[in-house]
Amino acid sequence: MNAETLHFSESEKNVSNDELLRVFKIQQPTALRLRNSTVGQRIAKLKKLRKSIENNKAHIIAAGAADFNKPAMELEITEILSVLMELEHTCKHLKTWLKPKKIKTTMMMLGTSSQVRYEPRGRCLIISPWNYPLTLTLGPLIPAIASGNTIIIKTSELTPNLSKIMVKIIRETFEENEVAIFEGDASVATSLLTLPFDHIFFTGSPAIGKVVMTAAAKNLTSVTLELGGKSPIIIDETADLDMAVKTLAWGKFLNCGQTCVAPDHLYIAENIKDKFISKFNQHISNIYGEGENVKNAQLARIVNERHTARIAHLLDDAKEKGAEVLYGGIVILEKCFISPTLLTNIPADAAIMQEEIFGPILPIIAFKNIQEVLDQINAAPKPLALYVWSKDKVRIEHVIQNTSAGGTCINHTMVHFLQNNLPFGGVNNSGIGNYHAEWGIKAFSHERAILKTNMLLTHIFYPPYTKKTRWVLDFLFKILLRMQASEKMAQSCMIPNKILSVAVFLDNPRRRLALELGATAVINPHEQDIESEVHKILPDGVNYALDTSGVNIVMEHVFNVLAPKAIYGFVGVPQKIEQKLPGTVMQMVPAGICFKGIIEGDSDPDRSIPELIRYYEKGQLPIDKLIRTYPFEQINEAIAANHLGDCIKP
């Protein structure tokens, strides 16, 4: 390739199997070396890639126009800006993402510490599509590099000009033993799929995704499949139609509908269908024009004549079966042009209702009952995306809970792809696995489990099995059964925003107030034994205890009624500074009991104060009953009332 003229020879396009194997082999030692690469080294490579993209911006725009007639600013948004944002986000957070994750020790593994580390998968293959060549090639390349892998890229032959630019960018940024890129037709991808890669990342149709997965299975290679499907839209009668029209028109006709998460078909409430159609037609007329003027609009073209003919067939089939064209319907095969088109009255057996459209045609289906829509969605393969326009929070939640999709936008389309902190991927037929940000690191990494023994305690389970082993097993089973019983007890006693609670107060007014505020039971320590009374109510003990007294005897009573894994919080300050906590280490460790000192509630005011205000507004925090106001001259009366229990906080 001549990097200046972007001219390719036929030999470069039709790479041989021997050449593919050669590059695959030279990446093996590099993959081993990259396991020890630092975060800083990986970030440096990403910054070098970013610089190359920026330097080739004009070439990218020109190539997009040659391949798609894609408007320059549309290409900058979808192909350049999105990749640069992903690069920036990854460089900023990579150190945090790759940091080993500490894992909490379980009861059986006392004496050990555990962590999960992300290690590179090794040699990876990225097979990218033609609809967004840069975004869907460099997008997965970013986490692959950030994770420390070597990569071979196979671009699509359907967008040759953008493919040439990517070859230029990759070859001026990386050595081929780390990142290599090849063009060519499907035979090149077929040859690459026979090699034993450590991971394959494929973006394309579900049909080809099955071929990739079958090939990967022969080498037990892990895969990430970013596929597609028919992503539905639901607009109910509460929706903001003006917003729905603008966002839906943008999402549907961006890249002339050739987007994997593009809205495929629309379900709309019957009583607003005509109003929506009127607004939608007017909006797209304002943007793209009507009739012959549409040909001059800022609208990308279909990628080639074959795909144009496929979409035209879907349109013709629908019309032959009774569908009505409400807008557009212009097809110019030799120019790969299809105008924005709106269809209605489409029969269920029309091909356009069965196949992913992947073009600028929007079928509209009216509905009376939302359940009918959900039934139709659930009867089809799980979509890559599902979009809902509504102001009804209950209905929105009902739709989400009763469907499955790779991702969902409420009152928007497609922008979840641009949210760097969300995973992007499909479900089953629409994809396997996901990527973006930390999820991209996980896609191109093996999550390695590491456990370190600090104190050998598991030896008690080694043969020969003795009475001591029997005692330990019985003890652990007893704790396990008590924990299960405690969970069941807590679940059976739960009502909204309340749990089974026991209050212990010396004075009667406070006991009455505790019951009034929701305590399940109260105990009078003057007349009742605290421990026996608690065990009558909670046979396995309490899960949480809060001491505000600081009195040693009280603290001991509370310790004796703690359930396994209980948390015991201390607010009260004892009179004697040297006072010790109740219980022993051997009582606490096997039962997993936690002591916690609390200062000023140990809360985050930015979060807790708004929460307390919301509880108060809902009547769930009757703070007025806890506070009594006195004039200053009655300060002695206020103190006396506090001692007597007539008020909580004077």
TrEMBL record:
Listed GO MF terms: aldehyde dehydrogenase (NAD+) activity
Keywords for this protein: NAD, Oxidoreductase
GO CC, any one term: cytoplasm
Domain Alcohol dehydrogenase-like C-terminal: 507-612
InterPro entries from the UniProt entry: ADH-like_C (IPR013149), Ald_DH/histidinol_DH (IPR016161), Ald_DH_C (IPR016163), Ald_DH_CS_CYS (IPR016160), Ald_DH_CS_GLU (IPR029510), Ald_DH_N (IPR016162), Aldehyde_DH_dom (IPR015590), Aldehyde_DH_NAD(P) (IPR012394)
CDD domains with a match to the protein in the record: ALDH_AlkH-like (cd07134)
Aldehyde dehydrogenase domain ranges (all copies): 33-448
Lineage top rank: taxon: Eukaryota
PROSITE patterns named in the record: ALDEHYDE_DEHYDR_CYS, ALDEHYDE_DEHYDR_GLU
GO biological process, one term: aldehyde metabolic process
Active site (record annotation): 226
Pfam families (UniProt xref): ADH_zinc_N, Aldedh
Family: Belongs to the aldehyde dehydrogenase family.
Name the UniProt record assigns to this protein: Aldehyde dehydrogenase
